[in-house]
Design goal:
Length: 259
Amino acid sequence: MLEKALKIIVLGSGTSHGVPMIACDCPVCLSSDPHDKRTRPSITIQYEQTTLLVDTTPELRLQCLANDVTRVHAVLYTHYHVDHVTGLDDLRRFNWLQEQPIPCYGQTATLDRLRMMFPYVFEQEEKYPSAVPRLTLHVIDEPFQIGGRTITPIPLLHGTMPVLGFRVGNFAYCTDVNEIPADSWPLLEGLDVLILDALRKRPHPTHFNLDQAVAHAKKIGAKQTYFTHIAHELGHDATNRELPDGMALAYDTQVIHSS
Ligand SMILES: [Zn+2]
Ligand SMILES: [Zn+2]
Ligand SMILES: [Zn+2]
């Protein structure tokens, strides 16, 4: 069954500001622990010949270099917030390497916003081949196939905003969430690995705080849960010492395996 295994790389585990934040002298921002350096939230999911990228952060190029990402066969978008999309232009390097357009999947609202934010990418005019990314946009609301595996979108709420998590096999990625709608719970059953939003200890109107994330992780019951979208209030080591067994903060460059 080895060929069915998933390899997940955490490209970024930080909140929208990144950690360290600009001009902050708190202990976590000044920490020398590499686990406390967090770029904006993103992962790759690899299986067989396929590499999926979830979101295109402002640090996409640096994340690809740091994690030896050499191919991107499809992009799954969780939502259109700036920390999840503004690295889109870096995808053109993969067009050059792969000599074909890259399919991008997301909700209608997400794809509409990409067209608005990046008009030069989607306008119909002749361009020098590597000047702009070549992307195709695909609305998703049901499970679909890429590279012989099923990708299941998981509807989530991020404040009042509908966003998507994604499940592949027994792995699920749910960032930017503070409510899991009733219909989405069955999509999270039987997980090996869950990556879940946990911003900080204080409450927030659109993200789970750590207590809420732990409570939801217990209810979901994945064998292992990692938390992401982490703000500078949470130091890696100190926070991990407080977490229950089977739960830990994710960190940039972390490699995770799942069935
Ligand atoms: Zn975000
Ligand atoms: Zn700080
Ligand atoms: Zn967001």
